[in-house]
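The aim of this short unit is practical: by the end, you should be able to scan a pair of folded records and say something sensible about each. We start with the first protein, listed as its amino acid sequence and then its structure tokens.
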Amino acid sequence: MINNTVYESLVKENSVKMVRKTKEGSISSCDLEYQYAYRDFNAKKGAPVFVQGTFSFMYNKGKNPGFLFKIAPAVLDDTTEKWAIVTPPYADVFTSGKSIKPFIAADFVCENNGKCIAYSDKDGSMAQTLFDKAPFDIEIKFSLSKGGTDNSFTLSSLLPEEKYIMQSADWMSCNLEIINKISSDIQEMSKKK
């Protein structure tokens, strides 16, 4: 019974929001922060799972732009009524049905026991893959047990359509700010040569 009550309250919290971060007054990242609740009947006997994470486009002056994906699923233990974060053995990000796995630079356990995947974009092709699609959407796939069934959701499914369109537009606008910074850095470097 507690599972149903918890699940029903968590589903109301499903969301995605754009957060613009700065460092010393200058843009450092554009983050899509998400949270998603579901019941996992495959790996966790129907226990509620509350997934939180981010998908970020990051800027560091003088370095290649990068992306970072974080996912931290927390499972409610029926007996102790406590939440425990599970590091997914598998997690991947898709856009337009294609995995962005070819761009992975590092795959590691985050500070909160979630899974973090860093992506390198040396030639801008990953940004092009992500930003050339309209309407922009990300599908996240992950499993809670090694070799287990994948769970999947799209960021657009976490908000009503008009709110998601606004968050997506804000994210794209923030990303354009980073792209302009990178372009300006390149011009600055070419003048020094």
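Turning to the second protein, read its sequence before its tokens, just as you did above.
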Amino acid sequence: MKKVKLDILGLSSSVDSQTGSFALVLKENKGDRRLPIIIGMFEAQSIAMEIEKIIPNRPMTHDLFKSFLKKINFVVNEVLITDIKDGVFFSKIIISDSTKKHSIDARPSDAIAIAIRYKANIYVDERVLDEAGIIFDEAEVDKKVNDDGKVKTLKDFSVKELNKKLTDSIAEENYEFAARVRDEIKRRN
């Protein structure tokens, strides 16, 4: 099995807010492929809180898991997304103590929520990325052609226009572009 390193690109709420699902978009560390995974509201909240460094009043489940591992002298080495069957992803959390490694079966959303608490790498079996990944040309994603034929990038849009593009991108489930628009808005603030 060949492992491919992934980074978290973004987290967006689903267009159908009734379902309470979110899209976690992972990107290939050295490549153009993206891996979108639909996750639940609680896992999305846990991931977002850790990314934003928000400390809850009481420990969340993933924080509890980290505290438990610390008490028994284990660390999380990495997370590996191992398989996809009928649209469902499978993963393992690789932990170790001073003597040996163990592999724990987990949903990718839980595994990633735990991995970010340890700053552990996230990997995917290349076969899974080949099957479920989306090729993404980052160089072309934010370019638009004006009526006069000139290329316009995100840097050329006003904040008001960017906010509209962000709303439209999320409605179209174009989460990669939405993340780029969000980053451009944050860069300006």
